[in-house]
Structures are given as C-alpha cells and as structure tokens.
Amino acid sequence: MTGIETRHVDPSNAEQARAWDGDEGAYWARQADLFEESTSRYDQRMLDAVRLTATSQVIDVGCGSGDTARAAAVAAPDGSVLGVDLSRELVDTARRRAERAGIGNARFEVGDAQVYPFEPGAADAVISKTGAMFFGDPVAAFGNLARALRAGGRLALLVWQAAAENEWFLEISTALAGGRDRPAPPPDAPGPFSLSDSDRARARLTAAGFQDVAFEGLREPMGFGPDVDAAYDFIVGLLGWMLDGLDDADRDDALGALRTTLAAHETDVGVMFGSAMWLVTAVRP
Predict the structure, then answer these.
(1) Position 19 confidence tier, pLDDT thresholds 50, 70, 90
(2) Contacts (Cβ under 8 Å, ≥6 apart) of 227
C-alpha cells in the first residue's frame, strides 16, 4: 500500500485506504470547491448540534478538504480542531485551505479514525459529514471516537438517508446503468448508505458506548456544477466506473441519458438535485 502506512490502518479499512489515499481521494482534492459547495447547506445544522463554545476541542472525521473543520475552528476561536482523513491529498488540500483562510487553530492528519490514537477524554465534540459510513468495523470506530470524548461530549454525523430518498443518486445511477439492474450493496458493507437504516445505525452507536442517539431527517438541494457541461464532466470523473461492462453503443446511450438528466435539473443557480441526510446526534455518558 502506498500513502498511509499499513500499521496506521485497521485491516478492515484497508480497501477504503487504497481508494481514498489513491485515485478517489485525488479526484476529490482536485474537485474540492465543488464537493464542498454541493453539501454546504447541511453544515450549519451539524455544527449547531454539537453546541460549540469559544474553547471547544473538536475532532472532524473524514474531514476531506476541510470545509467543516474550518467552520468549526471559526466557531471555536480559542479551541482547536483536528481533522483526520485517509487521503493524503485531501489532508494536504485541507491544510492549504486553512492556511489561506488564516485559520491557525485547525490541524489535519492522515489517519484511520477507527484506530487513530486520539487523546482520551480530551474532545468536546466529534463531527463528520458523509465520512462515518465507510468504517470497516463501525462499532470499533465509534468506540474509538467515544473514548476520545469527555463525559458529556457530543457527536454529530451527517449521513445519507436511503438511496430511494436521494434523487441525485437515483437519477444519476439510473442514467449511467444503461438499462442494467445493479444489485444493491450488502446493508452492512461500507458505503454511502451503510448508516441509512436508523435502527441499525442506532444499534452500532449504542454498542460503541453512546447514549441519547437521535435522528433528524434533513432535505436540501444538492449542486453538481454551475451548468450541464460542468456537471457532466464532474459526474463522469466521479462515477464513470458505473459504465464498466457496457459496449460502445450502450455507453454512448448512457452518457446521453446522463446529459439529458442533467439538463432537466439545470436551474439559474446550477444543476441541482434533491438530497436527504440524517443528522445523527449522540452523547458520551
């Protein structure tokens, strides 16, 4: 494995580390502006849920290019934020963006939050936007985060609701499937919808030591680019693997269907789809 040393990654997360510290993470780093903007309408609700004060100590899990970590650092000017991500390129991007913004109380580290040696009981809050769904062993990961929190410390996660509730996923994946049926991933496998079942997610958090686990359904428009051409390039770069196995004619049909779908969602503020997340909150007793 290149990038993250294997001893710093739990074996159950090795595949995720190869993806995120490889081509996938590199793509997210190159497209950081669009990724940050696409889900930004959810950010403040997550930050409000952990009740930050000026001196809060915060951990941001799967911090990506650092948008929510920067926001938390601004909300806690006399505190600190530690952002952790599997992708070296995203962590480097997060560092540069924080420096450009003049934010000195946020630091970013490459690491697997499932086994990262957080200081026990030192954090007031743990946040994660679309990062917690990829743990190989969710109970172990949430247990590690619970130990990092002080008694009474708060956890807030933004995770996708079921695929059926997310217009962006349904319409884009249908277009790129080219008429094929794609089997759904196993519900316990790491992936975008692994925490979409609130009962399953609650059981995992409770087993990890959290209490007062609650779910609030949120819905916001999600942007994929300022116009159809930009959204098309962005999605093909992100999800082009879904075209694998199609012959040339079916591939052309699928790409045509994608462009038609995007055109149907073009607005005066960009290409927008409906999206749905859970705001998951919990407390370390």
Answers:
(1) low
(2) 266, 270, 271
